[in-house]
Amino acid sequence: MAHNINQLPEDVVEKIAAGEVIERPASVLKELIENALDARATRISITIEEAGFGLIKIRDNGAGIAAEDLPLAIKRYATSKIRNAADLFSISSMGFRGEALASIAAVSRMKITSAVDQSGLGATLSCNGGTVSATAPASHTQGTSIEIRDLFFNVPARKKFMKSHRSERNALLRLVEQLAAAAPSTHFSLQLEGKKSIDTPVAKSLHVRISQIAGTEFGKHLIRSQYAQPGIDCTIYLTPPEMGSAKPRFQILYVNLRRVDSPAVIAAVREAHGAFTSGELKPAFFCFIDIEPRRIDVNVHPTKKNVKFENERLVYKVAYQAARNGLAQLMGHSGDTARTYATPPESSASIAKRPLAIHETPTEEAAYRTARLVSDDTGARQTGFAFPATPDSGKKQLDSPQDNRVQLAGNVQDEVAGLISCYQIHERYVLAPIKNGILLIDQRAAHERILYEQALENLTKGQSESQQLLFPIVLELTPAEKNVAASAQRYFVSFGYEIRDFGGTSVAISAIPSFMKDSAAADAVRTTINTLLDEGDMNRIAEPAHRFSAAFARGAAIRAGQKLETEEMNALLNNLFSTENPYIGPDGRPTVVRISLDELSRRFLR
Ligand code: ADP
Ligand code: MG
Questions:
Q1: Which CATH class is domain 10-200?
Q2: Residue 97 Cβ contacting ligand 1 at under 6 Å
Q3: What is the mean predicted confidence (pLDDT) over 381-405?
Q4: What is d(CA 123, CA 108) in angstroms, rounded to the nearest whole number?
Q5: Residue 564's CB: how many other CB atoms inside 10 A?
Q6: What is the distance between the alpha carbons of residues 188 and 176, in angstroms, rounded to a whole number?
Q7: By three-state DSSP, how is residue 305 classified?
Q8: pLDDT greater than 60 at residue 392
Q9: CA–CA separation, 203 vs 98, rounded Å?
Q10: Is 225 in the pocket of ligand 1 (CB under 6 A)?
């Protein structure tokens, strides 16, 4: 066949290349911030409109770009940062590929104004989807201003596949948080949709900067630890075991101050942390690895979000040791002998405590609550954190019929009598015999399903059972988290929460769903918010009512690691099988595995 291969026209080539670097508004902003940091800016101010599709504007006070360099700056593979291939192995700047500005220029309307000194005189240049204007003089103080308007205006296909403005805004906020966290000597500010969302004055240390981003309360508890080997040095800031969470707020790694992803480092820190805690609680951390540039390859991904380590095991080891030493010191162990952290962390220990042991609280209120919980056959309230009576208290009632508390809930007895014997396995699964086989239930997934349907119902009915807290719980959030909390406000109310703005980036929780224990509330709200922030399974649920309900359920559900009594397992089973769709969790994962007697027989070769 003849002539089926054509050289693509220049503008198509440009757009294809641009697509690799510029996936979304946050990738534009990432490149622009990194350029400003490379130019040694100490002040970076950012303005975003329409989630970055309307406007991304960034101004810095860095070195600036000379007038004669402006046309080069937006040319592909034009860079001031490396000169030859050998330089690729000693990169100390964020940028080096020389393609960011070219890529952004190809898919937007861009204007750059810059000046290299304090004379007030600089130059400006515009580029309209790849068509470049002449360079013209313009007034500007030292540094660079770049305005990007109408991102992807000439790439309709890309625009169509973009996530919602909501998730773009979250991505932008998180990006600024993450880049700012590693650059304490630069003052960042972000104006998002007309609202000042981030403002971090120059900080005297990484620790102070992390506190600016994540909250001073969070910062106060962080453990700082360091570990070095020849050519590599790791400094980690991580949360102590009692602050572990099922969904940690940060697990962030910087290699030579470049923010990158590394499953190895996450695994290392979790492994170290796992020796001091139980269940599925994970630490939040900021990990900074400094390594000789020649021992890594940063040129393995167009957006530079991964690096390749010459020796990944060594990286794992230093991260592990740094985390472990810090935790061991905190716990008063020596780095090598520490094994278990005796007191389970607050979040799981207190969840496991029975709030309603009848014999302990012979008050009318307790009696009422017990009766209500036990006789309530509709829903989620029987499970959750406040379960019906423990076997102990139940037995006590049965054993002593003259006890005046027996009458309070006659049907406790029915319940107890009708219990099926379940077994909890690894504080995570429930094993229940059924007529033709056995069921294995994932306790957390099952509870999520129950709460999810309950939440959806609350939304349609517009009501939920709520309890006022005596002392509101103040949560420090990041700007991105607070943004989500605000947008979810209406839903939180429907689920029984009362969450108010508490100034800065804090919120105050003053009421929680009635089934929930006070001590579980903070982690529940955080988990819900972070589920909404996360771009995981839950966030792919398009319908907002379903998405928020699923995130609520994820936050409020019992965790793996929580011990359940027989009554609680029975309640869980009953409630699960009263739901519309008992077999899958809100995120689509199974809740139940059923093994039939036939299958068991087969396995035993009968
Ligand atoms: P790279 O950062 O990989 O070199 P870019 O396309 O991001 O490539 O930028 C091209 C060049 O433009 C840079 O090498 C730098 O010289 C210049 N430049 C871009 N942004 C700035 C800025 N904010 N301040 C100073 N110089 C800049
Ligand atoms: Mg760059």
A1: alpha beta
A2: yes
A3: 31
A4: 20
A5: 20
A6: 8
A7: coil
A8: no
A9: 30
A10: no
Instruction: State in Å: Cα 35 to ligand 1 middle.
Output: 5
**Span 380-606 CATH architecture:** 2-Layer Sandwich (3.30)
Around ion ligand 2, which residues have CB less than 5 A away? 35, 95, 100
Which distant-in-sequence residues (6+ apart) come within 8 Å of 201 by Cβ?
187, 212
Most confident of 130-139, 142-151, 220-229, 242-251: 142-151
Q: How many CA atoms lie within 13 A of 69 on its CB side?
A: 16
**Structure tokens that stand for 130 in this block:** 């790849």
For ligand 1, atom 12: residue with the closest CA: 73
Q: Is 98 a pocket residue for ligand 1 (Cβ < 6 Å)?
A: yes
Q: What percent of the chain has pLDDT over 90?
A: 46
pLDDT interval class at 90 (50, 70, 90):
low
CB 152 within 8 A of CB 107: yes
Mutation choice for ligand 1 from 79, 107, 299, CB with most ligand atoms inside 8 A:
79
* DSSP-based helix, strand, coil % in the chain, nearest 5: 40, 20, 35
The full set of domain ranges for the chain reads: 10-200, 206-375, 380-606
Give the span between the Cα atoms of 510 and 522, in whole angstroms.
11
Residue 36 CB less than 6 A away from ligand 1: yes
Residue type at 239 in one-letter notation: T
DSSP assignment, residue 344?
P
Query: Residue length, the chain?
Result: 606
Distance from the Cα of residue 535 to its chain's centroid: 8
Residue 214 pLDDT more than 70? Answer: yes
- Side-chain half-sphere exposure of 605, counting CA atoms within 13 A: 0
Task: Supply the mean pLDDT for the chain.
Answer: 80
Distance 171 CA to ligand 2 centre (A): 19
Find the range with the poorest average confidence among 113-117, 180-184, 333-337, 415-419: 333-337
Q: Is 527 helix (H, G, I), strand (E, B) or coil?
A: helix
Give pLDDT tens digits for 420-444. Answer: 788 999 999 999 988 788 889 999 9
- In the chain, the amino acid numbered 118 is Q
Is the CB–ligand 1 distance for residue 65 below 6 Å? yes
The CATH topology of domain 206-375 is: Ribosomal Protein S5; domain 2 (3.30.230)
Q: How confident is the model at residue 278 (pLDDT cuts 50, 70, 90)?
A: low
What pLDDT score does 20 carry? Answer: 67
Q: Which ligand is nearest to the CA of 144?
A: 1
* Residue-level pLDDT at 382: 30
pTM, whole model, 2 decimals?
0.69
Q: Which of 32, 38, 59 to mutate to test the pocket of ligand 1 (most atoms within 8 A of CB)?
A: 38
Between CA 498 and CA 508 the distance in angstroms is 8
